[in-house]
Amino acid sequence: QLSHRLTRVAHHVPKGTVVADIGSDHAYLPCHLVLNGVVDKVIAGEVVKGPFESAQKQVQQEGLTAQIDVRLASGLDVILPEDSISTVTIAGMGGPLICSILVQGKKQLVGVERLILQPNVHAKSIRDWAVANNWGIVEEEILKENEKIYEILVLQKVEATVLWTPQQMLMGPELLKEKTAIFQEKWTRESDQWKKIVALMESTAQTKGIIEKKQGLIEKIQLVEEVLQREN
Ligand code: SAM
Q1: DSSP label at 15?
Q2: Best exposed site among 71, 132, 174, 203 by fewest CB in 10 Å?
Q3: pTM of the model
Q4: In CATH, what number is assigned to the domain containing residue 88?
Q5: Is the ipTM of this complex over 0.85?
Q6: Which atom in ligand 1 lies closest to the alpha carbon of residue 91?
């Protein structure tokens, strides 16, 4: 049984596309996509030997070696031009790590039409990368599993640079439209945590670094509270 989180990632994969799943671990997502008839060709990439072997084992057990190619390499280096990958999924890592994979794999992104990214933390770094590299956000989703809250960002290439407000960058342009209960819970949790950090900072020596960090947190708290207090 695939986790709720990965089931929702799978939901954004267009039918019949060729997928590269980077950091695939047990290759649960590629197996699910093929077994459910969503796609019939997936490259499962892993950089660490243990998870790479788990992926191979899982794919063999499911009898899917003809459809899922498990490869050992870092990030988008697993993608070869002849693969004609149109969808890339990267799930279960921090936003900054996902961004570094995208930055290092810039060449392999040529021809890719859709990125489905599920950062565990710091989705903002992905939005920063998207704006700087002309990718637009077409869908966003927020979900909760085992008390953890996850975001999914679906990106497609855009012609013109998109401009988002600081609130859209931090909280997600699509997620802000809906402001679901889970979204409100996430940002209430985050701002409560920032407030605790600010209080701690106030009780220590006010060095230049501390004052700057505190100011940064206060600005983020204000951005978030403005959204949470707004009627819609
Ligand atoms: N994608 C799966 C999921 O969402 O459940 C597995 C997530 S697991 C926490 C992260 C995986 O990414 C690990 O197996 C790790 O080895 C792999 N990983 C980390 N950096 C990577 C990179 N640069 N290239 C490929 N895989 C990477």
Answers
A1: T
A2: 203
A3: 0.96
A4: 3.40.50.150
A5: yes
A6: 4
